[in-house]
Amino acid sequence: MIELDNLTKVFDTPKGAVVAADHISMEVPPGEICILLGPSGCGKTTTLKMINRIVKPTSGKVFIDGDDTTGMDTQTLRRNIGYVIQQIGLFPNMTIEENITIVPRLLGWDRAKYRERARELMAMIALEPDAFLKRYPSELSGGQQQRIGVARALAADPPVMLMDEPFGAIDPINRAVIQDEFLKMQQALKKTIMFVSHDIDEAIKMGDRIAVFREGKLVQYSAPDDLLAAPKDSFVESFLGEDRALKRLNLVKVRDIVTDEIGTVSPGDTLENALTRIDDFGYQNSILMVNDHRQPAGIVNRSVTRTTKGYCRDHFQAVPAMIGLDDDLRKAASLMFAHDTTWLPCVDEDGKVCGQITQRAMTRHLGARFRARQGNAQNPDIAIKE
Amino acid sequence: MPIQTMKGALRALLLVAIFFAGVWSHSSGLIDDFLWYLPDVQYLMGEHLWLTAVSGSLAIAVAIPLGILLSRPSMARWAESLMQVLNVGTTIPTLAVLALSMSFLGIGTVPAVFGLFVATLLPITRNTYAGLKGVNPALMEAAAGIGMSPTQRLFKVELPNALYVIFAGMRTALTINVGTVPLAFLIGAGGLGELIFTGIDLYDPVMMLAGAIPTALLAIVVDAVIAFIAFVVVPRGVNPARA
Ligand SMILES: Nc1ncnc2c1ncn2[C@@H]1O[C@H](COP(=O)(O)OP(=O)(O)OP(=O)(O)O)[C@@H](O)[C@H]1O
Ligand SMILES: [Mg+2]
């Protein structure tokens, strides 16, 4: 656990005092990722660097797992905190292997153990050990260097990690890939992480909690969904962007709003039967046809059932799209737009139909929080300690 | 393509010229004249190298620690002004330095070594200091953030990254040192300067060249040797020569 208690940093500059961090108090529970978010110059890096004492706080305290770090030996403290700096900072005089094993070597691990660890780390960041370990940082792309920077911070398996825009130098496509890899890693490693970002989408994706900073002050500290649903003031609101409702689609899983009830027909049903079912369930245009294993087999259109006689198996169309329970609503919305439909069948891991998701259910779910907020102006978030 | 052919033609022309210069110098007896000085050259070259080796290694032994010391954060307040003083020191002609050191150390090897030492010290100190100060601050921050002690930072990060610049300083300084040793003859320390200055005094160009040409060759060899050491010693990742 990381706990900041009234942490303050004032820089004395020739132009006068700059308050880079102003009485920051917050807690990051063990095993969670906390994103420090805010515009350039708002004090994210400064706050982060006070945790490993690269920057000495002007006042206030940092506790790690309950221990006050103020009086600790800085070297011991830092060896137990993984640190990824904003400028990557790989040592150009060392090979990749030497770079990622530097902390284990400082800690006096034996050779066999740290070399083994190097290969393990490379697998973790999805880079081929044999191809990269003997290279020098200048022989890697910016994105590869950033991955190595993360591996170096993870090397001695520190319980706490500080990461300053660790994926900043990576193009959007690869960034998404690395973010996914990192989240998968985090599920297994359960580190307590402070992560600086100025990219809202990254914050929403990676963060268990998000701390929004403005001019050295912590403005709001909430879970991503709470932040998007209930921004505390107009600054946070404008920082999150006009499309914050859409951003929330990323956070909600189909599983959360799926309705189990779905009317279906089987290939052997008559079209007359199908029409009755469509009307019974109140469907507008069509009904899903499933096979013997309850897997989606086709769509039977209402217009067909009214004008034609026969069996469903002879008069169906292909299923335009379906969605898995663990997909997010963003994918669901995207599929609905792409196929001009207002509902999607949901399938489980075995491909069996287990319900449906409708546009109305989505809008209702997203809207609920906004209405709740208008109803009671208090924000429901974890209180910021004042 | 035309440039390539021109280069080729020039090279051929040069080789022909060298060949005829050789033929001419042999027929005119010049080579025999030079050969006559060979024993002297051998002996004086030994002295010459000895002066360079002693003054040079003393200078390296003092300059690198001095440069390191000046680059420490605790020295930041004085370092810049001290470097200014050193820079002014570099502009004093070596002959003047030798003269000064003679005036309080007398005549012979000791004042010569001392004068050469001072002249060699400055460029190495300056490059060591500049090289260490020039190490990317992000590397220093990463090193500190990882939990390296100041000593570990110096030896594992700062010095390896500054090494190429430090070697460049040694190359310059020692090449200049070799070229300056002839002046040491003027305060009685021997070396190839004996042939050069005596040759000048006696209006004997062959004798003068018998001192000057080996001096020039020595300077080139010393430069190449240090460049080779740098090539081997400086880690590949920060060695422009091996990029
Ligand atoms: N060493 C320093 N000396 C003086 N002022 C500083 C120093 N470091 C940071 N500042 C100032 O403190 C403020 C916060 O800087 P900080 O680096 O924490 O911002 P940031 O939120 O990380 O911004 P960015 O997103 O651009 O990295 C800025 O106004 C900056 O100019
Ligand atoms: Mg920053």
UniProtKB/TrEMBL annotation, chain A:
It is an enzyme of class 7 (translocase). Its main location: membrane. Keywords: ATP-binding, CBS domain, Cell inner membrane, Cell membrane, Membrane, Nucleotide-binding, Repeat, Transport. InterPro entries: AAA+_ATPase (IPR003593), ABC_transporter-like_ATP-bd (IPR003439), ABC_transporter-like_CS (IPR017871), CBS_dom (IPR000644), CBS_dom_sf (IPR046342), Gly-betaine_transp_ATP-bd (IPR005892), P-loop_NTPase (IPR027417). Residues 316-373 form the CBS domain. It catalyses: a quaternary ammonium(out) + ATP + H2O = a quaternary ammonium(in) + ADP + phosphate + H(+). Residues 2-240 form the ABC transporter domain. PROSITE patterns: ABC_TRANSPORTER_1, ABC_TRANSPORTER_2, CBS. The keyword Cell membrane applies. It is found in: Cell inner membrane. GO terms for molecular function: ATP binding. Its EC number is 7.6.2.9. It comes from the Bacteria. It is a peripheral membrane protein. The complex is probably composed of two ATP-binding proteins, two transmembrane proteins and a solute-binding protein. Belongs to the ABC transporter superfamily. This is Quaternary amine transport ATP-binding protein.
TrEMBL record, chain B:
Its main location: membrane. Residues 45-230 form the ABC transmembrane type-1 domain. The chain crosses the membrane at residues 49-70, 82-100, 106-124, 162-187, 207-234. Keywords: Membrane, Transmembrane, Transmembrane helix, Transport. The keyword Protein biosynthesis does not apply. It is a multi-pass membrane protein. Belongs to the binding-protein-dependent transport system permease family. It is found in: Cell membrane. The keyword Iron does not apply. It comes from Billgrantia campisalis. This is ABC transporter permease. InterPro entries: ABC_transp_perm/SBD, MetI-like, MetI-like_sf. It comes from the Bacteria.
